[in-house]
């Protein structure tokens, strides 16, 4: 639908603010799912078992509940898609939680309590095993591309053109753990580094280790302010001149007046700022990353769950929703078709 710039801005601010609460009740149509345990625990489906309303009037209106947990990064996109879907299907209730990718897999999705798990990194082998042990079959669907963003305080004027991967390794790895900025670069202030970032339940945390520290490296330092709420990261960096943090691009894009993004040196030796364009072109590396949602194949046997998954994939190329409203890079048409093929095959198997 067409929206003016003020309404789009208000909507995007709502999405980001909702992400900070950890639980969304969508637009008057969603029933709050406190703790994410309102769904059924059998066969990986948290959805209402009725699926459609066979009222005899021939309308076959979709109805039921869809439970979703997982990534805080994917949360704003899931909220946007869910609200639109519910505006067309008022008898469908979507319960959406922001728990972190790993927290969603371990505590909700792979135990059979939710129908979808959003993730900002691919599912891990041990998570697949947990799902299998509980008769849950995850279906991997890419939904967008993110530019993981490193942020500093607006008064930070010493970093200059940006940070190298090596400097990020020095700041964030468990091996070096510098206490002051001058420990990283002798020309920088002899002031304590204040670090903010996601918890180890977050896919953003996992991806940062993979892209910057290395999976075989010393790991992420633990003496930092860890939170599952991206808004808290923004507030922490905004409030301290010598702070640094990282989070998904959508959250930064709503707070460009509060903090500044840091350009990162890419594999061509160029310092590149995060943006939708640089993420799409591949210039913003190594911090561009795919975002996913994982429906449970068993849940896809329910019409309302399958149709919501189709709706999301059919709108995954929408610049209005994915880029303009939320702040991520939409799928290309070829990627979209690949995801639709994967989804439709899973729906057929579920039935």
Order of helices and strands: HEEHEHEHEEHEHEHEHEEEHEHHH
Q: How many beta strands in the DSSP annotation? A: 13
Going by helix content, strand content and strand pairing, the class is: alpha/beta
> What is the residue-averaged pLDDT?
86
For the biggest β-sheet, the strand order reads: 1-3-2-4-13-5
The largest β sheet comes out as:
6 strands, mixed
CATH topology of the largest domain: D-Maltodextrin-Binding Protein, domain 2
What shape does the CA trace take? elongated
Helical run tally: 12
- Rg calc: 20 Å
CATH architectural type of the largest domain:
3-Layer(aba) Sandwich
Between the first and last Cα atoms, what is the distance in angstroms? 33 Å
Give the tally of structural domains: 2
Poorly predicted residue ranges: 1-59
Percentage of residues assigned to helices:
25-40%
CATH-defined superfamily of the largest domain: Periplasmic binding protein-like II
| Percentage beta strand | 15-25%
CATH top level label of the largest domain: Alpha Beta
Q: What are the defining features of this structure?
A:
single chain, 351 residues, alpha/beta, D-Maltodextrin-Binding Protein, domain 2, 2 domains, six-stranded mixed sheet, five-stranded mixed sheet, elongated, disordered N terminus, phosphate ion binding, TAT_signal
